[in-house]
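To assess whether the prediction recovers the assembly geometry, we first specified each molecular entity separately, as shown.
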Amino acid sequence: MNITVRERTAAQRLTIVDCDIHPAFRTPAELHPFLPERWREHVKTFGEHVRHGLTGQLPYPRMMAAGMRVDSFPEQGPPGSDLDLMRRQHLDMNGVEVGMLMPLSRAGMEERNLDFAGALARAVNDWQLERWVGEEPRLRAGIVVPQEDAVFSVEEIERRADDARFVQILMSPRSSDPLGHRRYWPIYAAAERARRPIGLHVQGYSGGHASTGSGWPTYYMQEHYAMVGNMQAVMTSLIFEGVFARFPNLKIVLIEGGFAWVPALSWRMDKHWERMRKETPHVTRPPSEYVREHFYFTTQPIEEPENPRDLAAIMELIGYDRLMFSTDYPHWDFDDPHRAFKTQLTEEQRAQVFRDNAKALYAL
Amino acid sequence: MPGKPKLVTVAGREIGVFNLNGEYFALANRCPHAGGPLCHGKIVPLVQSDGPGSYRLARHQEFLRCPWHGWEFDIRTGQSWCDPNSVKARPFAVTVESGEDLVKGPYVAETFPVLVEEDYLVVEV
Amino acid sequence: MQVPNGAIDCDLHPAMPPASALLRYLPDYWRDQFANRHIDRMGFQLTSYPPNAPLSARPDWRGPTGTPGGDLDLLRCEALDRFGTRLAICNPLHGAIALFNEDMAAALCAAVNDWVARELLDREPRLRASIVVPTHDPHAAVAEIERVAADQRFVQIMLLAMGDLMLGRRLYWPIYAAAERLQLPIGIHAGSTYQRAPTPAGWPSHKLEDYVAQSSAFENQLVSFVTEGVFQKFPTLKLVLSESGITWLPPLMWRTGKLWRGVRPEVPWLDRAPAEIIRAHVRLTLQPIDAPFGQPELLARTLEQLGSDEMLLFSTDFPHWHFDGDDVLPGGLSDALVRKLMIDNPLTTYPRLREGAVLRDNPAQREETVR
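The predicted structure of the complete assembly is given in tokenized form:
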């Protein structure tokens, strides 16, 4: 029997939740109707104001086809901009029962003009509803907030909190201060009130700092790797600033940051906290406990150790209940649900990772 | 046709047939890494180097980059450039048979007309 | 587990002298400047290691007034005699490298290196040292390396894990050329000059966070060395990561391996998987061990995943507080691996440790020459 056919049937029996799908604008102007007049003018005249030397492009050019799967280009518009293609090529094909939208760029998280940032975030949130979740019941939106403006962010969360189509709050992990900093706490208070997790997707745009604590990378290969350090810093900050002591119900999803690094960092935090804990008396338990209780990780890009058993070992250490499948459609390093896991999962583990964990966390 | 593979289905398998200067090679349209549609990928040269900062193109039109994760495969052998020993796209032997031989012989392979000559492309599966 | 006699400790930290003690090693102009501007009263204390913080020194490894590492007698007794150490590499954590004035930094680095030679290496034959260099001026750094390397007891070049620019970059290659020529490993040591924020998201509030972040710095520096092709350009160069932790390395190998396969044309000088390059060129000192103490199987799995038993180098990281009593070695290591990491791997990594050095074991025992 043909292997491809058998696996496809198996995937259809088990529908999946995809925790990372990237919708795109057909053209930059697609967002404009969602902006107030003042900002429509502004975007045409002044445009985005980012912390990079180039606008409209990332300073570390991606590989092939600007970082997209070569087969994901629709007739018109960039990959991810065509709902029909997304349905055919991904939602239908891969048995996606629910997909979480991650609008990445021009959503205000990286914008230096905070008034503009707020307008962009609000517009992108409206756009998600009208163009995506309103048209396709399998999709869910995220409340994008410009995290550097906590006041506006809280307003935006409260504005959307009653709309169940928004399942999480999206901020940039490449922020101006590490996200545990108390400047951001009003946002976490609002998130807790709204009963939504915070989703942190890796970012190409800087919040004001080099991609690493030791300077700027030279190559895209390094820039890609630097995302790990960003996630590590976020985790460390949230824990050691005492965010979870103050917001015990807060949940954090680290999206597209990989996960093989989690056990090592947990051990490292524990070890040094033991020694230095007088500096952070509000952290009353080993850091690894906060990791277990508050953090979730999407699976893409799936780790590929030389020995697949090492992947299973990592997943066991993190807990199968904390991993949530994602494809990152339509990006180049897409994970196909049929193939991504080169290690054997039990039926129960597969159900947890591919569906149940996300359903529980996002109250689907 | 040079530059783009011809995609065919043989015995339920999708196969891309490539013409490299009159030599024919066929690869399964399935990347051994993660199952991507390999033969939809770009046909590229091999980028080589003499050291940091040095870039050279060689073996033009002889490599395939998988459209998903960009892995490079030698069209001639199906071998992944980065790890020839462990990852290999499945190659199929392709021979060019003359029309008269086919009518006479016991072959069951599907054949496809080639525009240039009255020969058939036979893909052995 | 008891440390067998004869270990080579690849990372320890003698107490650094006050600036006033360095004056005699400075040229006239700087002696004058330091005196007039009261720079000679400054501590040159690196922010990364606040002297009274628990991590900076174990209580029994402090001098009578609390100085981390105490004095040379304390170091002899607690770092060397206690573990039966036959050779130990000093990594001088001195604030000279955090100065912006390049000439002042260069002069002060030279003074530190000279002080180390006179006050430590001359007085204790078991000690060796890393050369401290003014990193932000690579040519001055090369000059200092060549000057100091004439003294064979300097066995490594020390750089900090967090500086202004990524260390794999070409502008630093003159340093690596000199290192390769002189067969000196480059030792990247934990610590920051804080010339930029220690994380991609800015400045953490706590020293504990900064210390935890050091492992991310090591990861990125390692990726920098590999990606920039430093080991293609300098094929016999060795890189030692000191006080870096270990368990983050296998995931780095996997991720960079996967990445490389997809982005190879961007960096086509990489002719092998990153894991292979790392196994061939990179070593790590033992302490701190970032695996849970009571679960030796976790560290064992990491070591297996590294795919090489040649990568670890014994260290105490004296006086930094990473273990209690004599528990410098983690549980569950085979005798063969212990011998490798304590003796064979250091000798292979640091050629200068091999050259006719005369060793002295614990006082009760005979002298023995290292082959």
